[in-house]
Description:
Elements: H1 13-20, H2 36-50, E1 56-60, H3 64-76, E2 88-92, H4 94-104
Parallel strand pairs: 1-2
Amino acid sequence: MRCKKYLPSGIDPKVRDWLTQRIYFHSGSFDEPATFGPLKDLLRKIDEERKTGGNYLFYMATAPEFFGTITQQLKDSELTTESEGHWRRAVLRKNLLDTIWHLRRR
Length: 106
C-alpha cells in the first residue's frame, strides 16, 4: 500500500499491516452531492468486511474554506447521523484548525 512509505521507520510490521489494511481513500468533488452516495456505499461495504459497528471517522486534510461544505454534505447524506450506538466523527487536520483560528480573529 502506498501509505506505508509515510509511516515511521521501525514500526512493527504486524501493526503497520493492520493499520494500512484499514485506511481507505475516496475521491470526488465535495461540492457535488453525487460524490457522497458512493462514499456511503463504500462505508457500508467496509462495515460489513471489517465489522466497524457503523462507526465512521472522517479525516479531512483540506483547506478550511471547504470544511463546512464537506461536513454539510456528510450531514445531508446522513453520514454523520449517530443512531443505534454508532458514532461518527469528522476530524480537521490540526494545522488547518490553527488557520481557522487565525481567520476567525480577523
